[in-house]
Write a structure and sequence with these properties.
The complex is a heterodimer of chains A (402) and B (88). Chain A has helices at residues 19-28, 63-68, 71-87, 94-98, 110-122, 132-136, 140-149, 164-178, 195-203, 236-241, 267-281, 299-313, 326-329, 336-350, and strands at 4-13, 34-35, 48-49, 100-104, 155-158, 183-190, 227-235, 248-257, 290-292, 321-323, 352-353, 376-377, 382-389, 393-400. Chain A is an alpha/beta fold. In chain A, the strands form three sheets. Chain A has a ten-stranded mixed sheet with strand order 5-4-6-7-1-8-14-13-9-10, sandwiched between helices. A two-stranded antiparallel ribbon of chain A has the order 2-3. The longest helix of chain A has 17 residues, at 71-87. Chain B has one domain (2-87): ACP-like (Non-ribosomal Peptide Synthetase Peptidyl Carrier Protein, Chain A, Orthogonal Bundle), CATH 1.10.1200.10. The longest helix of chain B is centred in the C-terminal third of the chain and has 16 residues, at 72-87. Classes of the chains: A alpha/beta (402), B mainly alpha (88). At the A-B interface, loops of A face helix 2 of B.
Chain lengths: 402, 88
């Protein structure tokens, strides 16, 4: 069994175009949520989201790349580039033959689907661009990362709705730990902020029309975000031998299924996932200083998640800091766990706990320390990152300070 | 007109609960007949589609959105008001 460490991180999301900008946003408790601006937005009743701002794809990609890259792929490549540069790795030779990519995404190339459905159904056009399929496929981003950096080992995408990234990173962790590969790129990407993507969510009546307020008694739903985060997971011995900077250690992972309801969460399933991650990491509840919560800002999730945390942590829950960073970067659906892992790494490496912003009113059903509105300085040794998906699929990562 | 609206709403809710319309009345509550939040969202959709109205309903704040779902009669009152507002 290999110890697994993180030696590179990269992102693009509503808080910024890099990890540095994103972490600065989280320290400041800045919100990336604002008015949406895309075709047919006036036909939506929910018109806010956490969109990536001022991103000009033509500044980053060639014309030929853009013909093949849906927005979610653009985000993934942008994030991966930052992570790989930071790691200092070079995938020439043997390392490239075993290294791979596991990326989470729920919608895949949804922008491509939306645009092309509009052109064939609404505009009545009968011809579509030849690259519609390779742009929209769920594994497109993972495949492009493999091609750009010559990663020729296990490469695939994972789609488990809001837990996609955590499932993906959990699998990458297991591969490095078991010795399948010394290095894996992993994380997630999502770009669901388009008319069809938002209209579908609107139908479920769980979206907030004004703000994301996780754990606050007056919360009224979730706000969708977009972007990507990609990490370099590396065997500890390999990283140490080449003198790489270690950002944090991935210590454990567990996944469970509620097997009960297609949308309503279960405290039992969530609790089993947290217990499983602790056991896998050989950590006790008392050793955990911070949990990056799933914290969607819906009535059901936040109440259930707090119940699950209280069950797992018992008396230790009172000394625990829990925050949901979704009020800042929005809910990136299949990419969310990846962006949230940045907050976990910041907590472990820099001792800065990202806040739950938008918090106004205590909820007796969420009576935990949710780090309301302002970041906190606190040295911690270990942390969990929660993701609980529609379909009752739970995935929890456990990390330790390097 | 009011009777037709009441009848149609009862039909939609009965169908959602997999009951006959005679099994429920305006005084029935959704909990009585086992309609959960997802079932309610589906019933709201069916009502909106039938009457071509938009009901202000957020599953996170079922009581705070101006659509009282504590009883079917309260729901009918809101639906009637929305239909009347559409005509003016």
């Amino acid at each position: 069994m290999q110890r697994v460490v993180i030696t590179g991180q990269g992102t693009i999301n509503a808080l910024g175009h890099s990890a540095t900008e994103t972490l600065a946003g989280m320290r400041q408790g800045r919100s990336g949520i604002g008015a949406l601006d895309f075709a047919d937005v006036e036909r939506l009743s929910i018109r806010i989201g956490a969109g990536v701002k001022d991103f000009r794809p033509e500044d980053h990609f060639s014309r030929q790349q853009l013909a093949l890259y849906d927005r979610f792929t653009q985000f993934a490549v942008h994030a991966a580039r930052e992570a790989i540069v930071q790691s200092g790795l070079n995938f020439d030779g043997e390392l490239g033959a075993e290294a791979g990519v596991v990326l989470g995404t729920a919608g895949g190339g949804l922008q491509t689907q939306d645009e092309n459905y509009r052109s064939v159904y609404q505009k009545g056009q009968n011809r579509v661009h030849p690259f519609v399929v390779p742009r929209l496929m769920n594994n497109a981003a993972a495949s492009h990362l493999s091609m750009i950096w010559g990663l020729r080992g296990p490469v695939y995408s994972v789609a488990t709705a809001c837990a996609s990234s955590n499932h993906a990173m959990g699998q990458a962790f297991q591969m490095v730990r078991s010795g399948v590969s010394r290095v894996m790129l992993t994380g997630g990407a999502e770009s669901m902020l388009c008319f069809g993507g938002l209209k579908a969510w609107e139908g479920l009546r769980v979206m907030s029309p004004d703000a994301c307020r996780p754990f606050s008694a007056d919360r009224n739903g979730m706000v969708i975000g977009e972007g990507a985060a990609v990490f370099v997971f590396e065997a500890f011995e390999h990283a140490r031998a080449r003198g790489a900077e270690i950002l944090a250690e991935v210590a454990g992972f567990a996944m469970t299924s509620d097997a009960s309801d297609i949308v309503m969460p279960s405290a039992e399933g969530a609790a089993r996932a947290m217990q499983g991650a602790l056991a896998d990491a050989r950590l006790t509840p008392a050793m955990i200083g911070y949990i990056n919560a799933h914290g969607t800002g819906t009535r059901a999730n936040d109440r259930t998640e707090c119940a699950a945390i209280s069950e797992v942590f018992g008396a230790d829950a009172s000394g625990l800091m829990i925050s949901s960073t979704k009020a800042m970067h929005g809910h990136l659906i299949g990419g969310t766990g990846a962006v949230e892992l940045l907050a976990v790494i910041m907590a472990l490496k820099d001792g800065v706990i990202a806040p739950t912003i938008g918090y106004r009113q205590p909820d007796p059903e969420c009576a935990l320390d949710v780090v309301p509105n302002a970041a906190r300085q606190c040295r911690i040794d270990a942390a969990l990152s929660n993701a609980f998906a529609f379909g009752g699929l739970n995935a929890v990562l456990a990390l330790k300070r390097a | 007109m009011a009777e037709a609206i009441r009848q149609k709403v009862l039909e939609i809710i009965a169908r959602q609960a997999m009951l006959e319309v005679d099994d429920i009345s305006s005084e029935t509550t959704l909990t009585d007949i086992g309609i959960d939040s997802l079932g309610l969202v589906e019933a709201v959709f069916a009502i909106e589609e039938h009457f071509d109205i938009s009901i202000p309903f957020n599953a996170n704040q079922p009581d705070a959105t101006g659509f009282d779902t504590t009883s079917i009669s309260a729901m009918i009152a809101t639906i009637e008001a929305l239909i009347a507002a559409k005509k003016t």
